[in-house]
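note to self: the first set is below, dont mix up w the second
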Amino acid sequence: MPSVFENRPWLDQYAPGVPHDIDPPTQTLVDMMDASVARFGPNAALDFFGETITYTRLGERIDRVAASLAARGVGHGDRVAIVLPNCPQHVIAFYAVLRLGAIVVEHNPLYTADELKHQFEDHGARVAIVWDNTAETVRGFADELGITLIVGVDMTREMPRGTRAMLRLPIAKARSSRAALTSGGLPAGVVAWAALERGARLEAGHPRPALDDIAALQYTSGTTGRPKGAILTHRNLRANAAQGRAWVPGLAEGEEVVYAALPMFHAYGLTLCLTFAMSIGARLVLLPKFTVELVLEVMRRTPATFLPAVPPIYQRLASGAAEKGVSLDGIRFAISGAMSLPVSTVETWEAATGGLLVEGYGMTESSPVAVGNPIGPSRRPGTVGVPFPSTTIRVVDPDDTSIDRGFDEEGELLLHGPQVFQGYWNKPEETAATLLPGGWLRTGDIVTVSPDGFITIVDRIKELVITGGFNVAPSEVEQVLAAHPSIESAAVVGLESPHGGEELVAAVVLAEGATLDVEALREHAKKSLAAYKVPRRFTVLDALPVSLIGKVLRREVREQLQAGSAAR
């Protein structure tokens, strides 16, 4: 039967001024950056600890680095690995690589050697632009994998002169801060970043990328195995930046201040900071690592107007600002992603800022944002919102995607739109399992959709626990456990049962001063959950493992519990 969502009932929920569809992209990311340089030239583009770079200067530096990379053999379709924290060199490298029609491959600079090596083996980049603290790691497998050029980046060179001088003071705090930012030197055979900026600018006639050329390989989080490289084209990423721009009425182009508190090697940070912020001529304040103290210090100097982040960041900033007496006024827009946004966090944040905090939803394979709560009175906390402009959805039987579900019926969410990726790098079987005929993206998320189009996430298909023949959604159990006063946070997973199948196990972090009372927790859970949903075992952990953007890693929780003994 046809999908009940074909008529897009959610369009009535859009904030005034938000178009139903965006114009198809005509600019590559390179064209987009050129347009921002021409339009916003004297404005500050990047702000790093107070040191600013104008759009004009940014464009010049991108050209010089692109010319140097071209002279070293980088050309159309070549993969270039970027292994950097948030810093000016990251932005410059990203657009310089794209200017040549080459492909950016983003990496977490805190990955282990094994994690990085696996990804390099997969994408085959011969050139890597890396944080100097990571240079030795990459150098360790460079010869084996045929990496011919490693460029080392000391990001402290982009800081104000006074800040750099303070980092060199012979005191413990200065030494510690400096070590966290730079190694202070490069291994043999690694080229210093400065060498890339010494040459002439790129010739005007140098070939440029096309809209359907690959712009980036973004590695997924790998919650169901080793990470896979999602193929994102200029069209995909340009479309998502345009969708984000359309979603936020009231943005003042050339005047916004966007904080890059999210890592730009993550799809969420890449789109909201590297592309969206640059497309509107914003001042992008680069934070190499999120700390409450650093953000509040920057707020005193250059207050944000737009802050993309994750729920724990909003909660910690609001608490920290209240404690330190720092005003958060002026942050008009905040978009939360990657994990569920508690209504209490929305209330706390909006009381502190006077602005709006809404939840969005997406995945690396959708560039990444596909759904969001409207920026206006129709928003609905507790849901992830409605589909973006030019985006449509289906809800289907996860075991047979040809069977459509209706309103308020649980099923797997499928996405369709210009931001949907092209597949996984060199993985045709995984691509075929995820990208269905017609360009429909399987999200792996079980949802319900209200008659007016608001989407509620029920759980991940692949994290459902089957116990006693029944499916259990871990997030449902976690929410109940976290509501107990003795529990600070919880993660629920399935472990192999000695009786066959799986049994439900909860890892909990206790509130300060609390002790584990298993029977009390079970009685509490039974008030809200069917008996089969109550965990059979409980284990106390000091902290739950989380990703760099704060998402609980259930796979790592499961591995910890399998390796240890559970408290009963």
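second set (the one i keep forgetting abt)
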Amino acid sequence: MAHVYKNGPDQIVLADDTVTTRADGYVKLRIPEHGKAIETTTPISIPSLLKRSAIEFADYTALAAKINGKWEKITYQQYLEQVRTCAKAFLSLGLERRHSVCILGFNSPEWFIADLGAIFAGGIAVGIYTTNSAEACLYCAESSEANIIVVEDEKQLDKIISIRPRLKHLKAIVQYTGEPNNSDVISWKRLMEIGSKEPDDLLEESLKRIAVNECCTLVYTSGTVGKPKAVMLSHDNLTWDALAITERVTIERGNEVLISYLPLSHVAAQILDIYVAISVGASVYFADKDAFKGTLVHTLQEVRPTKFLAVPRVWEKIYEKMMQTASQNGYLKKCIASWAKSHALQYHLDRIKGIKSKSWGYSLATTIIFSKVREALGLSRCNLHASAAAPLAPELKKYFLSVDIPIMDVYGMSEASGGHTICIDGATNLETIGMSIPGTKSKLFTTEHDQKELCMYGRHVFMGYLNSPDNTAEAIDSEGWLHTGDLGNIDDHGFVYITGRLKELLITAGGENISPVAIEQLVKTELPHISNAFLVGDRRKFLSILLTFKTEVDPETGTPLNKLESSVQNWLKQLGCPATTVTEVLQAGPDSKLLDALKEGIDRVNQQATSNAQRIQKLAVLPSDFSVATGELGPTLKVKRRVVEQKYAEIIENLYK
């Protein structure tokens, strides 16, 4: 019988290895004997971190969500109490130690409380992408041995009901918005009533058995290649990474306001939201899940966050709205805006070069123009504008610099608790993903194809993939370095750059290795009305590119529509080939001015090619944009290259006839 350790929740159980693939395993923590303060900081469990913040920031707002048009707030003291109540309810419903609570829904206070409640009760918290099919939910729930599944609404509940007979470990389903129509499903209100009636004995016993070097969270990878893998994260992975990030970013304890808006429930970033906020006593305001329909700016205006993290598509949407507004200005306003933007861009480009001087023009523009722009966007108090989950085009960064909104890249992965590098004001440029956060290390590993793969090391590196020793051994080498699968380089200043994906490498018929991502990004920069560019040419004589136009999206399903975005329509009018739909574009024929414009953009990309093999020879416009709903994108917005190649195989073959 296994020994029961009862000195938790901050105990460290003796372990022989830094890696495990067992749900009941422990790992040796990567704490150096000597090093920076952040490297050697004393490990702390998630329950202790929340308890500490509940004492230090007891009456500060922890979570806020808009209910029936009014912001309802929870203090840190109430946050701790509700997490404990939720944990007691989970235990009462039969949650077993190291079995999971799966959470399927948009980010909300209930999502955060359920996640922490599972951990407090000695279980494992598992976030499931809201875009997952019923079968994908089944895979996550069964492989994590879920005892409880928490869903947002009927739409997500229907998925679980359809697979319930196949869920061998399931004991209860909870719905956290609205009243369940199914009598076997527990409402959030009822869940909290159950927990409030339970004594503290079982919960305290569970807390005593917790160790900081055991698994408390699983994050399933998006499964762009093969089945999703379950990333095992310990208390130390999560709490240490959050503390290390706050070392890099200037954060005023107890006085920060964060907006939580992740339109596809990007689980790794969502989890990091929880622990970064708790570690500094920040207030998290939840944006409406329909933010893409236009409510996000209203939320920003009301909340006026001090930190704002968004996926690139959010920044693109803001940019498109700003460009649309600017196009309606008269001649004089356009001249003033152009003058102001030139001064702001020069100021920020100088800062990137280490020149810290303000021109009178920039100071004046900041006072009379940019302050109003930031106020209109709800960013008047924001001192960190960040982008994560996918690359943000350098030209888009340049535009935001010109309106005095410097956007900083954040880079990480599920296997490193969400964060590894970050840009900060005064230490960034247009191409970098930033510097390694304090206490972590980055290095380049030379692959068999002489490519440079980015590797990372630190206490944030995950424990292993659940029940998958082979995949774990492939990801973490014998020295503890995590191989990211990203190609990159590191300059003399310590800035890290991503140049592509190792598994997306194209090898031409001539034997040249080509990373498609960098070329695709250049195409999107030269042709800003293109939504997605997809390079093909693996084992082919030359490269070709598939292009999709920016179109309107069905707000309910996320499916791209046939109608082109207004900015694309305006561009086509200027070219002399008006079209309002993708169908009309495809009917334009090979002699259209549009095709000439696309070829000119590709020619500009080819001028930057480092060899003839990297030049694009042919192009094709696809009948629809990529999306999660139609299968070309994964939940984290990464392109599923195999899906695209199979879906458009005929178009690709025609390019090579």
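remember for set 2: Residues 505-655 form a domain with the GMP Synthetase; Chain A, domain 3 fold (CATH 3.30.300.30).
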